[in-house]
């Protein structure tokens, strides 16, 4: 029997960045033939706010630590790619000792106050093993204490059609237990040739000195590749990009060992649509793309969350939690 629920599913977008999660849930809603509506968003970075406004028509609220949970509108799904720098291999691994690490607890206080039917959280894969697993264990314990049935899995953007090796951990939580199934599809990788722009301006090319240094360590490849330099200075060439990183060297990734990725190419590697408006400088856009998430991976996770909640038209879950989730 076809789902006749025509009411839009309200969601909130925390630590919104430039809207990766919002694109993901909007795409998932279209895939599920179910309307979704953003009722609240929050992002502290002014440049990201500007980009978000130009692409979605509304400006995210600022510092989430200063926003009372009770003032946030009721919602059914909470989305949050909470800041990953404290847990990232590029950073200093300070974790919860860093004040930004405690921003997870702002997510927790909002969940406690608003009791959404479900949430989807995203972070770097390293979070799982941080501090011998104690950080991640504490996160899961906190969510369980709030009364949520949680499922987690690390997913790779390469499995969702993107030519970028980007592993992220997703946590899907439900107010009432239900059968949640992780997306198992393996979408063929989009070739780098489809991602890369033609006639790239000279300003994106590395200096002759840097290019020769790369060639001294890595032979040219017949196919198009992205050359990756790790912290130890080792060079590897792959038919895909290694993970975009906001704080890495500008020459960390070079197409064919010659040039940097353009802003549009970086956004394509994250799965943003072609009509996404680029409003910031190269440096800022590089940071924004590096801090974002792989949109198709998040879309698949959210699509299955909507299925579990009974929000997908024409799909009846084996063990729905929708009726018991009403507040």
TrEMBL record:
Originating organism: uncultured Desulfobacteraceae bacterium
Protein name per its UniProtKB record: Cytosine-specific methyltransferase
Family: Belongs to the class I-like SAM-binding methyltransferase superfamily. C5-methyltransferase family.
Gene3D superfamilies for the chain: DNA Methylase, subunit A, domain 2, Vaccinia Virus protein VP39
Catalytic activity: a 2'-deoxycytidine in DNA + S-adenosyl-L-methionine = a 5-methyl-2'-deoxycytidine in DNA + S-adenosyl-L-homocysteine + H(+)
EC top class, as a word: transferase
EC annotation from Swiss-Prot or TrEMBL: 2.1.1.37
Catalytic residues (positions): 84
Coiled coil regions, renumbered to chain: none
Keywords of this entry: Methyltransferase, Restriction system, S-adenosyl-L-methionine, Transferase
Any one biological process term the GO annotation gives: DNA restriction-modification system
Pfam family, one: DNA_methylase
GO molecular function: DNA (cytosine-5-)-methyltransferase activity
